Recover the amino acids of this structure.
């Protein structure tokens, strides 16, 4: 009879719930010591997602109260939901389900809702929950003493708490790192929005900010219209400012962001960003503008933008895939003046990555790639952002075409056959000159400043030509072949052959005072000339392998010889893309020569010799070293024949026997690396260049030391030795906490300070009544060029970062005063991010800001 009663109760509960919720159901009794067979209603079979499964230790049916109760480890499965509790009671009269004791609902999306007591409608959609806790799939959490769910989609948490932080494992009751506590939290799933009323943000349980009302998207939202995190600014020229971005989700594939910013000194700055994603790519357009209220905050032209009432910028970038191999894209920007981006802290993806150049680079391109070929066609426009650079001396480069194709093991030759092509055409309004032995003449000279490098009178021995005015074009094609042969002794022989042809078209502009010296350099008519450079060569390598108890060693002598005719027209070529020449171990055995671009080409017969060592010690340690030298055997040495820029002179290659070059890479154990490279004078062995670095990293500490020293190159206009030392590191001081710091020392600046003192003292002796006695610079070699330090905290829900940086005055980078900046960033996952930076120093003239601010 007892068994029959349990079977009847199970059938009654399943039938009752199934009738109300979806029709037929399935119930199973799991009583200790007795098992009931599954029972199913006799109605038509239900869909799998509509079936209900009830599992409990005991089922009790009360006919008088019209209730069915499942008691003990209750689990109900229905439409992807799971209800678990110590006891579940179904009230047929009121059509309510009550879950008591350790109650939990697991939604189909993974959301877990727990509480002490659930009082729900019979479809589990609406009702009240006591001692509620909600854990969403993205680990965000809600909790409240009492909550109500209505319409199956709206949760109202009375005295609710929200956080995206996980509870402490050792002490779950301790407040999380941050949480939002509100009088009411309303989560509307249909709107995918969470509303907070009378909210305060707490850190470690301590209230830090009060917000009467706020709202934000829930974790299911990827894109939603609404306000973004505010932006704060404070500078002497702008005053205090706050910007409030508003994001418009116009469609799944395009949006608009409007950012009005009020600045107490300059008025309203408007910013807008449009983004659009299409089937084959995407593009974006950003624009900014302001009618300045206080133009006197800036320096007058040409040092600043005081003459401009309206200032603004436009930027656009995009990339589209024509097919899997071909892409077309652009990144272009333009501003009313060179100081706008820095003054108003405008985001600009076209800015150069080097702080030395300080320019905005606009480009458009067509690119194609395959397994053995590469094509790139693009154009460039450069906008200088430093007051010392002149826009008219910047070239417009259009087009630049590069093509390379490699054919492995062609049937008629074997080895590798390579084809290379390059076309470059550029135009500039004004010629750019640089004075030797050091810059003393400027195009604009006033009692307070000098601008734009120039030469008073052009003389090849005292003036370099960095760029001709007018149009300069060149087309280059080259075919090369090489193949490796290994003889029975293990020696490797690599024959090489190439032929290259260049065509130049130079149409210089000689009009005007600045451009007139060009007439002494190049023919003012449209001059077209060419050159052909064939080459044959051979490389020899013979590795010797030795194994010892402490490692494996490979010593490999390397010898290479390349024969070419003499280079022609080096003084007629306007060298635009081969101005930088660094001779080191990396290009010692370069087949195409050691020039960095196409405008120059290596000529004559040259031999390169060296020895390579590679060692492996145990599982982690290794060493790699190379030492070598280059010899001009016959013909004219291209590196001793300076062009209009003297490229090649003072390079270590301008003598018959070159300087020695060496490099080394050593890792004695995991995480520790030593690297170094040097160039040594062939006669005195004095170091001409030194680059060295040491790095170490593990889970607790990272550290790096870098050192560089470069001797003067007077023929290139570099009259002083350059020497620097950098120290950088970070330390994990606790879980999630890391400190970082860095310093850069200018080890040679004290000599420059003394040079300035001697010049100033000579001026004083010449006119003691006009100027004061200069103060002797009592400085040492360890002068800092920049410093920085910061602290970072990162965990699953929070990123906190604060840093301080200082860059010291350096005319080469356009800065005449120290700049000190503090930056702060706080990111609360799912709530947003706040960042702020403050310049603590007076403005630099490179910013175009008046020194009176």
């Amino acid at each position: 009879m007892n068994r029959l009663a349990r079977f009847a109760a199970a059938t009654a509960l399943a039938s009752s719930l199934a009738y109300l919720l979806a029709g037929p159901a399935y119930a199973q009794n799991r009583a200790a010591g007795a098992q009931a067979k599954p029972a199913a209603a006799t109605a038509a079979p239900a869909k799998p997602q509509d079936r209900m499964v009830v599992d409990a230790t005991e089922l009790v049916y009360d006919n008088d109260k019209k209730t069915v109760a499942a008691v003990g480890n209750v689990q109900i499965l229905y439409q992807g939901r799971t209800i678990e509790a110590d006891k579940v009671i179904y009230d047929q009269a009121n059509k309510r389900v009550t879950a008591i004791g350790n109650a939990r609902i697991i939604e189909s999306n993974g959301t877990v809702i727990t509480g002490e007591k659930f009082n729900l409608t019979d479809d589990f959609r609406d009702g009240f929950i006591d001692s509620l806790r909600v854990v969403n799939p993205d680990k965000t959490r809600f909790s409240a003493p009492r909550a109500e769910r209505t319409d199956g989609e709206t949760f109202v948490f009375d005295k609710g708490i929200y956080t995206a932080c996980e509870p402490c494992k050792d002490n779950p009751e301790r407040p999380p790192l941050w949480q939002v506590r509100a009088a009411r939290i309303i989560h509307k799933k249909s709107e995918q929005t969470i509303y907070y009323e009378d909210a305060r943000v707490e850190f470690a349980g301590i209230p830090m900010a009060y917000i009467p009302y706020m709202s934000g998207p829930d974790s299911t939202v990827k894109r939603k219209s609404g306000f973004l995190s505010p932006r704060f600014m404070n500078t002497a020229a702008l005053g205090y400012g706050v910007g409030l971005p508003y994001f418009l989700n116009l469609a799944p594939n395009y949006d608009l962001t409007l950012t009005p910013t009020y600045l107490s000194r300059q008025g309203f700055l408007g910013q807008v960003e449009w983004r659009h994603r299409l089937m084959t790519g995407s593009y974006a357009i950003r624009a900014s503008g302001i009618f300045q209220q206080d133009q006197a905050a800036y320096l007058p032209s040409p040092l600043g933008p005081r003459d401009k009432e309206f200032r603004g910028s436009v930027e656009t970038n995009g990339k589209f895939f024509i097919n899997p191999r071909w892409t077309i894209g652009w990144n272009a920007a333009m501003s009313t003046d060179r100081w706008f981006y820095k003054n108003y802290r405008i985001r600009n993806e076209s800015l150069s990555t080097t702080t030395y150049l300080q320019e905005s680079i606009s480009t458009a391109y067509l690119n194609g790639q395959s397994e053995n070929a590469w094509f790139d066609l693009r154009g460039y426009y450069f906008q200088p952002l430093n007051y010392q650079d002149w826009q008219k001396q910047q070239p417009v480069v259009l087009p630049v075409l590069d093509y390379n194709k490699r054919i492995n093991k062609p049937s008629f030759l074997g080895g590798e056959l390579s084809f290379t092509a390059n076309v470059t055409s550029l135009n500039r309004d004004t010629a750019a000159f640089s004075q030797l032995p050091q810059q003393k003449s400027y195009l604009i000279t006033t009692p307070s400043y000098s601008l734009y490098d120039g030469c008073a009178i052009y003389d090849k021995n005292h003036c370099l030509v960095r760029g001709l005015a007018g149009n300069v074009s060149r087309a280059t094609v080259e075919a090369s072949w090489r193949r490796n042969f290994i003889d029975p002794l293990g020696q490797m022989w690599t024959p090489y052959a190439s032929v290259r042809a260049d065509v130049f078209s130079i149409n210089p502009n000689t009009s005007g005072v600045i451009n007139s010296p060009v007439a002494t350099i190049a023919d003012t008519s449209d001059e077209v000339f060419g050159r052909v450079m064939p080459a044959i060569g051979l490389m020899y390598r013979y590795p010797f392998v030795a194994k010892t108890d402490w490692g494996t060693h490979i010593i490999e002598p390397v010898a290479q010889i390349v024969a070419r005719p003499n280079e022609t027209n080096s003084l007629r070529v306007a060298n635009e893309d081969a101005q930088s020449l660094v001779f080191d171990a990396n290009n010692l055995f370069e087949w195409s020569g050691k020039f960095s671009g196409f405008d120059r080409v290596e000529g004559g017969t040259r031999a390169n010799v060296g020895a390579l060592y590679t060692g492996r010690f145990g599982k982690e340690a290794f060493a790699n070293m190379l030492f070598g030298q280059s010899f001009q055997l016959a013909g004219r040495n291209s590196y001793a024949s300076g062009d209009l820029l003297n490229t090649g002179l003072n390079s270590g290659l301008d003598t018959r026997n070159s300087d020695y070059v060496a490099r080394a890479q050593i890792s004695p154990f995991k995480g520790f690396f030593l690297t170094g490279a040097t160039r040594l004078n062939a006669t005195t062995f004095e170091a001409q260049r030194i680059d060295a670095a040491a790095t170490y990293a593990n889970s607790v500490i990272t550290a790096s030391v870098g050192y560089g020293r470069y001797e003067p190159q007077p023929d290139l206009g570099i009259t002083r030795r350059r020497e620097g030392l950098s120290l950088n590191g970070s330390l994990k001081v606790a879980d999630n906490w890391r400190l970082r710091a860095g310093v850069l020392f200018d080890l040679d600046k004290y000599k420059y300070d003394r040079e300035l003192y001697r010049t100033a003292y000579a001026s004083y002796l010449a006119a003691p009544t006009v100027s004061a006695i200069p103060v002797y610079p009592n400085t040492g070699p360890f002068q800092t060029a920049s410093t920085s330090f910061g602290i970072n905290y990162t965990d699953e829900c929070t990123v906190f970062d604060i840093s301080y940086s200082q860059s010291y005055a350096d005319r080469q980078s356009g800065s005449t005063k120290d700049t000190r900046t503090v930056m702060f960033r706080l990111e609360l996952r799912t709530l947003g991010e706040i960042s702020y930076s403050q310049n603590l120093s007076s403005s630099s003239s490179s910013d175009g800001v008046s020194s009176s601010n």
